[in-house]
Write a structure and sequence with these properties.
Blueprint (H helix, E strand, L loop, with lengths): L12 E2 L6 E2 L5 E3 L2 E3 L1 H4 L11 H23 L5 H22 L6 H22 L6 H16 L3
Antiparallel strand pairs: 1-2, 3-4
Helix pairs in contact: 2-3, 2-4, 3-4, 3-5, 4-5
Length: 154
């Protein structure tokens, strides 16, 4: 018997659904057995299917949360370990706002939006507070806040 896709390859395998002969290069392992590529219907999970409308919603929700939380952060003490703790909490809240605005979808693009929203929050907080933007604790707080925001959308 010859593979339906590669006629030069002999095989004893068949698709578990349609019965078409398939070779080891063509087979796809599924939870219900070996299938051909047509029957396997490989597609992404719906939670990772994101179109432009979702990115716009994520940007709106993330930047609105970033500006509001950045303003609140600017009214607090902006130094040392306290800044790091506040940044981690702020990043989690920004990530949650982005996630909520896109109906809990996930993906790398949404992580980028959340990280940018945390940067906006940091700049707003530094502007309101009048603190130097490039301090060691400030940059560490920014990185940890970005990590906290993006981990919500992984």
């Amino acid at each position: 018997m010859r593979c339906a896709t590669h006629p030069d390859v002999e095989t004893e395998l068949r698709c578990g659904r349609c019965g078409k002969p398939i070779c080891p290069r063509c087979l796809v392992y599924t939870p219900v057995g070996v299938r051909c590529r047509d029957c396997a219907r490989l597609r992404r999970l719906p939670v990772y299917e994101i179109n432009v409308c979702y990115y716009l919603r994520a940007a709106g929700g993330g930047f609105a949360a970033g500006i509001a939380l950045g303003f609140a952060w600017g009214l607090m003490p902006f130094f040392g370990y306290f800044a790091i703790l506040v940044a981690i909490i702020l990043g989690g809240l920004v990530g949650e706002a982005v996630s909520w605005s896109v109906n809990r979808k996930r993906g790398r693009g949404l992580q980028v939006v959340a990280a940018c929203a945390v940067v906006v929050a940091y700049v707003v907080a530094a502007t309101v507070h009048g603190a130097p933007v490039l301090s060691v604790y400030g940059l560490l707080a920014l990185v940890l806040g970005m990590f906290s925001a993006t981990s919500r959308l992984a």
